[in-house]
Amino acid sequence: MKSIKRFIIPVLIFLLSNFLQFGIHGLLTMAPETAQLLRKTGEVLFVVSIAWAIIVIIRIAKNQLLKNYDIDVPDNLKSRKVYTQYNILERIVIFVIIIISVAIILMLFESVRSVGVSIFASAGIAGLIIGLAAQKALGSILAGLQIAITQPIRLDDVVIVENEWGWIEEINLTYVVVRIWDKRRLVVPSTFFLDRPFQNWTRTSADILGTVFIYTDYTIPFEPLRKELTRLLESSPHWDGKVNVLQVTDAKESTLEIRALMSAETSPQAWDLRVFVREKLIEFIQKEYPQCLPRTRVELKEPDKPKTK
Q: 17: Cβ–Cβ under 8 A, 6 or more apart, which residues?
């Protein structure tokens, strides 16, 4: 029912165009100039109605196809891939339909027919796009097409762009919207993801590893710390049960660098898990091994005794 409602406006425009072209002349007597103007208006509306109906059909077909793919599940890599391709290709097809419609409308008028003909000249619409690709705007459109094909990013991918951590919220023909963790939106040109390096945390899968670094004194015992990490992970609903590692990754002059490595199904869960583990490990060290917190040692020497004669 909802899909049928989308055709109401184009159907009304179609009926109005036919009335202006064929019906109104039998009902009213008017000057030839007025009749010609109404006829041209009807022809323009006819093109608009057909283009509108085609766009509605494309959108309905896309929505029907995407019903088989759910991006709300944790393992949604295939769904996000399909959503990205269909959304970008839909915008490209609609863009081409609008260009063709404008060209046809221009060709209906003698004074601007040359403009409409020029759009179809040479290699047609493809020639127009390729010929103008050097221009920045259409270069971005072609970048959007390349993103749809090669997919360096997908909808709901977790990325770091311009030192900002967030999710891919929208992929349009000329720009991409990144939803940052604090609910800000970062709008980035499509060409950015083809010309510059960026981090994509969910390129091949949604699961991700998280790290927590703790700095302690050299006297810290490692096995109790490993057991505490295991206990913390098993008590957390964010841990997926796959990775649980604690290692000494560096030894500095006054502290040891200890890395806790863990895994989660999604990046938001990995973030919450890292915060939880970091807090609890610090609390554990403060309570059980306070002497092993980072410290600076100073060696005091007794002053030399004066020599007696």
A: 41, 42, 43, 44, 45, 46, 48, 49
Q: How many angstroms separate the Cα of 238 from the Cα of each of 110, 129, 261?
A: 68, 48, 14
Among 34, 153, 45, 21, which residue's Cα sits nearest to residue 104?
Answer: 45
The predicted model scores a pTM of 0.53
Q: State how far Cα 245 lies from the chain centre.
A: 31
Measured N-to-C along each axis, helices 77-107 and 124-131 cross at an angle, to the nearest 10 degrees, of 110
Closest by CA to 161, choosing from 191, 190, 193, is: 193
β-sheet bridge partners, residue 213: 259
How many separate domains does the chain show? 3
190 and 236 assigned to the same domain: no
How far is residue 122's CA from residue 110's CA, in Å, rounded to a whole number? Answer: 21
Radius of gyration of the chain (CA): 33
207-239 pLDDT, tens digit each = 778 889 999 999 999 999 999 999 999 999 999
Considering the domain boundaries, does residue 307 fall inside one?
A: no
For residue 123, the model assigns a pLDDT of: 44
